Predict the 3D structure of the following.
Amino acid sequence: MNEIHKSDLYIDDYLDKIFLLEKSIGAKTTYKILEPFPVDTEDSLSIQKAAKTIADFVGLNNLVFIVAKTKQKSNVGGYIELNNNENEVFIEISDNISKSQNAVLAVLAHEITHKYMQINAISCGTGPLLEYENEILTDITSIFLGFGKLMLNGYEIVKESVNIVNYTRETIKIGYLNKKQIAFVYRLICAMRKIPKNDMLSGLSSEAISEISDCYCYEEDYFNQEFHNNKFQNELVESLINYIQTLQDELNQINRHLELIKTEYINKTETFLDIKQQNLKNFYNDLRTLNQYDTYDPCLIYLITIKNRRKIEQMKIKLSQEISDAKEVKQNLNTITKLDEKKRTKKSFLKKIFNKVLRN
């Protein structure tokens, strides 16, 4: 297990991973939490028994876990051999953490979880790019399986060294999730499983309890026991339905306004335009009739001119009225296109403008 420093919570990612686990192995878990237990880190037999206790807790009692303390790479707490299908599984524990029973239990829980995941085909995928994601999933799976207390108590150890010359203090973190992230995932899984508070906190170190307490700022959004209530779920859906219906109502209102505009104004304006276009055509026809007489008789021309003059005057009067009507409609249309939103929705305002000119 590598030491990873991350201060932020990636809650959506945790939820996705827990959702995956619940679908895959939720029915196989007992919803119990393995209580921390003593282990003599100087006694290899005691460590073997600890590994067996952890493995048996998740149903891996058909396997024999053989644990050895060896030197590991920097910031690596342990290693498990997964490349064989034998009943014997080899685990190595870094000698850097071997003196801390909490750290040993946390490393064993993490490594045995790797084996459980292999058997149950739980993975984010394969390849170097997903290696880190799989380690995060392993930490979360370890908590999911009931090793949350082991992980919380053993997430880090402090090594101190004192000599005549100087004093050194080294903090070694176990796992890929930091203490804040482990506490959040543990608290979330306990809430999901309705674990009583006393059961959730028993056996935890004071530091671990403090980390759990810091998670209560998320109580309403993630640890709310109302989430188990069907009524609460229905109310959530109802609230969403109300929003959707509100949007539907608003769109219906717009559609009604649009239909009103079409019926009362656009259609009437189109009818108005058709009538006026026909009148315009009639005026052109009348214009052509003014010069229909082909004559050189001065007297006849005189009489035609008198006749045409009267006809033209009458046509101009009619045209003036047509022009006036057209200008008024045009102005009203200009007004509509420049109205603010409040005025656009007022039926009475629009009707007042058009009723004067758009009448049968």
